[in-house]
Amino acid sequence: MDEESPSSRKSKEIEHKVYARVGLLGNPSDVYYGRTMSFSLANFWATVKLQPSHHLIITPHPTHDLVQFSGLDHLVNRLQSEGYYGGVRLLMSICKVFYNYCNENNIELSKENFTLSYDTNIPRQTGLSGSSAIVCAALNCLLDFYKVRHLVKVEIRPDLILSAEKELGIIAGLQDRVAQVYGGLVYMDFNKDHMEKLGHGVYTPMDTSLLPPLQLIYAENPSDSGKVHSTVQKRWLDGDEFIVSSMAEVADLALQGQTAILEKDYSKLADLMNRNFDLRRSMFGDDALGSLNIEMVEVARRVGAASKFTGSGGAVVVFCPDGPLQVKLLEDACKEAGFVIQPVKVVPSYLNEDDLKTLSG
Ligand SMILES: Nc1ncnc2c1ncn2[C@@H]1O[C@H](COP(=O)(O)OP(=O)(O)O)[C@@H](O)[C@H]1O
Ligand SMILES: O=C(O)[C@H]1O[C@H](OP(=O)(O)O)[C@H](O)[C@@H](O)[C@@H]1O
Ligand SMILES: [Mg+2]
């Protein structure tokens, strides 16, 4: 085989950055044929780098995929706080899903190999979609490396990213992946008819400047979306009436929220956000949500702000309807409680021309 010079390999290097996401309204109904409104969060991101190489190599991250420890106590502490998994399995899984999708759709892939590595500053397992940011960035690298971006429709990409996580037994929904493929603020309808007919939801990008200033609170608090969802998913599949009707109400909040945002009716938005969390709490129960997560929501509510989880737990999105003085009160309360608070920065849509050409309609 031809030996390439290091500089020629470097010039073929591909890197993609994908941001965290905030579920603003309607989550977790995306897992249950509902609706959500979510946006891509500029505060945190994951990057995946692809370099052409002789063999196909998945590089473990030096800290997120730690395999060398100072001793047994270090190993055990690490497993207790962060669990067994980092991002390697995510990268492997998206490679498999991508390869199978291309095969099934007669998309020819050249025989070249690559080395994939990743980095992320998205707080780990905090419901900010750290997992799908890594998968989405890797998919973007593969699409460009094999030059098949124009052959894989934008609407299908969130399904591929989700399949990569389902493959690993992680229960998750599409909202994260849609926000991360599209960028910006997106209203999503996962109605069963659409999903069955089209194979994906209906995604409507919205103007991010319609959003009021929002705050993000988070804690170092790994929560596993798969574990959090498992009991509720089982009850939903069994047709549990309370779960089915509550989930339908959660989905309806996103529909009402779309109108509220378009009309800049922010007091309505505040009510919808609060109701969203209250419904989650009644369905999942306090034990599954965890006291620290509940406290993050309550800290905000004690200063009169509206708050809810960004994802399945670990981070909270807050709206202070009374403005900067209320934000200051919230900052003080977070400091006292030991939570990190940051103003939300929203990422504008980042579909490029090739992506837009694949959009149907
Ligand atoms: N920051 C991270 N670095 C490395 N791997 C991560 C990170 N966050 C999540 N993962 C991987 O993704 C899996 C699922 O994470 P998940 O519970 O969905 O968290 P999140 O809310 O961040 O998406 C984890 O078990 C782990 O394998
Ligand atoms: O429970 C939720 O709101 C979300 O949980 C998962 O996101 P995560 O960031 O991993 O907590 C899931 O992937 C989403 O689809 C749910 O809406
Ligand atoms: Mg996740």
From TrEMBL:
Record's keyword terms, sorted: ATP-binding, Carbohydrate metabolism, Cobalt, Kinase, Magnesium, Manganese, Metal-binding, Nucleotide-binding, Transferase
Domain spans labelled GHMP kinase C-terminal: 260-331
Plastid among keywords: no
Enzyme class: transferase
SUPFAM superfamilies attached to this UniProt entry: GHMP Kinase, C-terminal domain, Ribosomal protein S5 domain 2-like
E.C. no: 2.7.1.43
Required co-factors: Co(2+); Mn(2+); Mg(2+)
Catalytic activity: D-glucuronate + ATP = 1-phospho-alpha-D-glucuronate + ADP + H(+)
InterPro entries according to UniProt: GHMP_kinase_C_dom, GHMP_kinase_C_sf, GHMP_kinase_N_dom, Glucuronokinase-like, Ribosomal_Su5_D2-typ_SF
Molecular function as annotated in GO: ATP binding; glucuronokinase activity; metal ion binding
Pfam families linked: GHMP_kinases_C, GHMP_kinases_N
Domain GHMP kinase N-terminal as annotated: residue spans: 105-184
Entry keyword Kinase: yes
Family as reported in the entry's similarity comment: Belongs to the GHMP kinase family.
Function as written in the Swiss-Prot or TrEMBL entry: Sugar-1-kinase with a strict substrate specificity for D-glucuronic acid and ATP. Involved in the biosynthesis of UDP-glucuronic acid (UDP-GlcA), providing nucleotide sugars for cell-wall polymers. May be also involved in a salvage pathway for glucuronic acid.
Protein name: glucuronokinase
